[in-house]
Design brief:
homodimer, Glutathione_S-Trfase_N (chains A, B), 9 helices, four-stranded mixed sheet, Glutathione S-transferase Yfyf (Class Pi), Chain A, domain 2, 209 residues, Glutaredoxin, alpha+beta
Chain lengths: 209, 209
């Protein structure tokens, strides 16, 4: 039985996992979550996952949430994308945590604010706050990537899958690749890998359009 | 040579690591970071740590940032606080990530906004946004802890050290233990453990008073 990923196209956190599965060459099956119609608040979904989060990975009896934990699982099970050296493992975890707190952790809510929240609920002060924090984190990534091909070690890892989670989306969230040449080159390097696909190619969109 | 933790009292992220070191019975030495006078922006600190973050753990040649990665390191090196079963490890990681994104990830900036930012820079809209997200996460923790003593397995782990990082501070950040009886009982259970200390007992305060 192949792994199932409960996901929807707009979720960058789900994309990280879908991308890692593709890059690892692991067969998987998307289970569409109708997020904008409240699917994550339904009792069946809450029974699967008390945190009410997307994505959820199901692999037989194993049910996991939090994209960083799912990435760790995919890497462990497939033996891929975890870095070559033992010392890489801790660096991979560090970048996944950095992403969770400061890159995707800011880009996700910011993109939601600017694109998916009903207009009357949007707040420019909140968007400005999130954007300021996102760009502080992007500057650190830009510095780190200035003289490296990948975030950790000398090959692609789940740390790259994590940190790029929101960065291929076209909706405006104040991120412009042109402003970050090292990040731009790294995103091009990633999207040139065999198996890479854009989030909307891997997962069905949920936003009512 | 004992481990050194670059820290200051107001940092809940540093507290998580200091607390884990105490609970593990591992000798350690605090190195005070004069945060509010710009110490994390100084070249010497940036050389130690490109991310410019507090805490930083130094253990001989090993230099680590991101409290979740430091907690993982402390647990690995001491063989303590990692959970008893192999299956616990993934749950521990999941709660550390949940905390990084949604509990400490919101409580930290919110407490900063409400207490340490110059008053003219505070924004009630930002505080309301962060508070809303924090309380959503606290409700999930409250549900999870309703019928358990610890977040993972049947003993204290670094997941508990992570999630309590900001919850013992007295400064107002819209969290009141009385509203969360299961969290309240869990915090009391934690603070009754041998070795537990309040953040301001473990680390020197940096906020100019």
């Amino acid at each position: 039985m192949v792994m199932k990923l409960h996901c929807f196209g707009e979720s960058g956190n789900a994309y990280k996992c879908a991308l890692a599965l593709e890059l690892a060459g692991e067969p998987w099956e998307p289970v569409h979550v109708d997020f904008f119609r409240g699917a994550t608040r339904a009792p069946a979904f809450r029974a699967l996952n008390v945190m009410g989060e997307v994505p959820v990975l199901e692999d037989g009896e194993t049910v996991l949430t939090q994209s960083g934990a799912i990435l760790d699982y995919i890497s462990t099970v497939t033996g891929k994308l975890g870095g070559k050296l033992a010392a890489d493992r801790r660096e991979v975890l560090r970048w996944i945590l950095f992403d969770t707190q400061k890159v995707s952790g800011m880009a996700g809510p910011l993109r939601f604010q600017m694109n998916f929240l009903p207009e009357e609920k949007r707040d420019p002060a909140v968007a400005a706050f999130l954007s300021g924090r996102l760009h502080s984190a992007l500057k650190i990534m830009e510095t780190h990537l200035a003289d490296r091909e990948w975030l950790v070690g000398d090959g692609v890892t789940i740390a790259d899958c994590a940190c790029c989670g929101y960065l291929y989306y076209d909706e405006d969230f104040t991120f412009d690749r042109v402003q970050y040449p090292a990040i731009d080159a790294w995103l091009s390097r990633l999207s040139a890998l065999p198996g890479w696909k854009h989030p909307y190619e891997l997962m069905t969109r949920a936003f009512p359009g």
